[in-house]
């Protein structure tokens, strides 16, 4: 069968593979476009396996929401260049939509979810790797399913995303709180959520910082001084204790004035916790010159 330019173009549009790869696959498949597409998909999976060990610490977050249900998915690439590629963005949005529709519990379960195209997420990931030439990993998935209001926000660069579960209040307040969390990144929701070990450690530190004169004060006075310092620290690491970015009172005061309560929030920062490889190109060139 003759391998026409239109057939190659159709396969390219279908798989995202390069022109020469499509032509080669069609030639080997005797012009059978379905067999060629399958071969390219298998080739893409093989390429994905080869790239799996390469550090993927860049990327972006995908957000999908339907009423009280919302999901955030972190998908990593090796470079920020690919993270801003339109094909990568389209892939991220498609995966987020599949995560919401499937109800997948985590990133691992998400692999078998189906995209609107009919492909599984894992199949689409292999295709994206083949098309973009980098290791791409679906790292984390968080979600909210509430009878209250969902505050969903992803920063314009796609690197920071938040979901807030607000009982009572309204959608505007929920979104404002999500923006607050994205800006100040509190590790905890309320004072009761702060680990006791953290509080005890901070007490030790504050006591060690005190002068001998202060330490010699009566126990009840000393306790008040330490408690005041600890309360300030706890306020700084909790959503409720922080000053609201869209106002001049604490988040707790704003939420209570609205007759609401923050049941919890999810915060994702792209690449958080991944050790990035720092390339020293000058050293690499110098080494090559010595060979």
Brief rundown of the structure:
It contains 13 helices and 6 strands.
Low-confidence parts? 45-51
Query: Would you report the number of β strands?
Result: 6
Structural class of the helices, strands and pairings? alpha+beta
How are the strands of the largest sheet arranged?
1-2-3
Strand content: 15-25%
Average pLDDT confidence is 87
Tell me what the structure shows.
It is a single chain. The protein is of the alpha+beta class. It is built from 13 helices and six strands. The protein has helices at residues 5-15, 19-28, 33-51, 80-83, 86-102, 107-110, 121-132, 171-184, 196-209, 212-215, 219-236, 251-257, 281-290; strands at 58-66, 69-77, 137-145, 149-154, 160-167, 261-269. The protein has a three-stranded antiparallel sheet. A three-stranded antiparallel sheet has the order 4-5-6. Strand 1 and strand 2 form a beta hairpin. Helix 1 crosses helix 2 and helix 3 crosses helix 7 (121-132). The chain is elongated and about 95 Å long. The relative contact order is 0.11.
Summarize the helices and strands and which ones pair or pack.
Blueprint: H1 5-15, H2 19-28, H3 33-51, E1 58-66, E2 69-77, H4 80-83, H5 86-102, H6 107-110, H7 121-132, E3 137-145, E4 149-154, E5 160-167, H8 171-184, H9 196-209, H10 212-215, H11 219-236, H12 251-257, E6 261-269, H13 281-290
Antiparallel strand pairs: 1-2, 2-3, 4-5, 5-6
């Amino acid at each position: 069968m003759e391998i026409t330019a239109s057939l190659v173009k159709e396969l390219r549009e279908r798989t995202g593979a390069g022109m020469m790869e499509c032509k080669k696959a069609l030639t080997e498949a005797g012009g059978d476009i379905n067999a060629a597409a399958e071969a390219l998909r298998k080739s893409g999976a093989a390429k994905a396996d080869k790239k799996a060990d390469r550090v993927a610490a860049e990327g972006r977050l995908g957000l999908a929401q339907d009423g009280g249900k919302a999901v955030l998915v972190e998908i990593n690439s090796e470079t920020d260049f690919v993270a801003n590629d339109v094909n990568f963005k389209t892939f991220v949005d498609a995966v987020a939509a599949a995560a919401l529709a499937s109800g997948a519990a985590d990133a691992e379960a998400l692999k078998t979810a189906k995209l609107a195209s009919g492909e599984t997420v894992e199949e689409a990931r292999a295709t994206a790797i083949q098309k973009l030439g980098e290791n791409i990993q679906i790292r984390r998935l968080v979600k909210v399913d509430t009878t209250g209001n969902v505050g969903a926000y992803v920063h314009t660069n796609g690197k920071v995303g938040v979901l807030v579960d607000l009982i009572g209040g309204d959608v505007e307040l929920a979104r404002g709180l999500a923006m607050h969390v994205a800006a100040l990144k509190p590790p905890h929701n309320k004072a009761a959520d702060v680990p006791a070990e953290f509080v005890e450690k901070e007490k030790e530190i504050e006591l060690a910082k005190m002068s001998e004169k202060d330490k010699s004060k009566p126990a009840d006075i000393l306790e008040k001084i330490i408690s005041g310092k600890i309360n300030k620290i706890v306020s700084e690491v909790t959503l409720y204790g922080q000053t609201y970015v869209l106002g001049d009172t604490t988040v707790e005061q704003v939420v209570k004035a609205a007759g609401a309560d923050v049941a919890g929030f999810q915060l994702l920062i792209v690449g958080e916790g991944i050790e990035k490889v720092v390339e020293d190109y000058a050293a690499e060139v110098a080494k090559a010159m010595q060979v």
